[in-house]
């Protein structure tokens, strides 16, 4: 099987093998990657965490787990500009630096193996985790508790004061949705690196992992534009137009299609 097929097979397991799936995702970009080696390193991390956790009921161990990861030097990657290595899980494990989602996946896998209740939260701009039923979120990068006011401040930090906090910002995130978000992150980071062939792999995976969106089709259309593939670009613009419910966007997409109608395919 290809790395992508192995990734999807991991998601089909019960329960899903999230960490291994993320490693097979990374293997699409690094053919030399052997997930078994990183999984062995993870087993050692699991042993270190298990010996450091306090003796408390499982429901009270989520924050100590995250703080234990911090003590073991797992932190948010604050490099500028951020590079794809912040989201490729084998490199995050090796460097102990990564985006919040990558750190959350490591924490969620540890929690599952230690029977600690913990779930991912698809918060905009900064992935969060929480104990089911708790009145607060947890930052996977630090273990800090985040209440409503803290989450509002986090949203403003990423999107500005015009962005309002909504209940759907706290939606629980299942493994396919986490890997779809990771694929979006990588798509952005590879485009930022001018690596459009790598970004195309991520853009394709995004569309396979969940319902298609206007933004996702347009992101792939823009990549095809950079790769001088007008027919493929047209396909995604057409799909975006079909999905769009915004009149202004529909007009802009219609104009883009008219321009593409005169383009000659290069392939």
TrEMBL record:
InterPro entries: SirB1_N (IPR032698). Residues 38-183 form the Protein SirB1 N-terminal domain. PANTHER family: F-BOX ONLY PROTEIN 21 (PTHR31350:SF21), SI:DKEY-261L7.2 (PTHR31350). Belongs to the UPF0162 family. This is Regulator of sirC expression, contains transglutaminase-like and TPR domains.
């Amino acid at each position: 099987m290809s790395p992508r097929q192995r990734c999807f097979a991991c998601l089909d397991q019960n329960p899903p093998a999230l960490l291994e799936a993320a490693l097979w995702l990374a293997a699409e970009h690094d053919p030399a990657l052997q997930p078994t080696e990183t999984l062995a390193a993870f087993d050692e991390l699991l042993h270190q965490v298990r010996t450091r956790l306090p003796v408390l009921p499982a429901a009270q161990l989520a924050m100590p787990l995250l703080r234990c990861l911090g003590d073991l030097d797992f932190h948010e990657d604050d490099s500028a500009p951020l590079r794809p290595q912040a989201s490729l899980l084998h490199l995050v494990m090796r460097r102990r630096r990564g985006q919040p989602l990558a750190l959350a996946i490591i924490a969620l896998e540890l929690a599952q193996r230690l029977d600690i209740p913990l779930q991912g939260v698809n918060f905009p701009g900064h992935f969060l985790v929480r104990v089911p039923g708790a009145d607060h979120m947890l930052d996977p990068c630090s273990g800090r508790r985040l209440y409503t006011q803290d989450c509002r401040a986090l949203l403003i930090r990423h999107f500005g004061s015009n962005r309002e906090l909504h209940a759907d910002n706290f939606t629980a995130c299942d493994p396919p949705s986490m890997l779809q978000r990771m694929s979006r992150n990588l798509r952005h980071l590879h485009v930022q690196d001018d690596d459009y062939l790598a970004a195309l792999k991520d853009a394709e995976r995004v569309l396979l992992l969940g319902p298609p969106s206007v933004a996702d089709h347009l992101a792939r259309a823009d990549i095809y534009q950079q790769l001088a593939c007008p027919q493929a670009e047209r396909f995604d613009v057409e799909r975006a137009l079909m999905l769009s419910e915004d009149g202004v966007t529909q007009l802009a997409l219609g104009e883009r299609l008219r321009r593409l109608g005169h383009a000659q395919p290069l392939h």
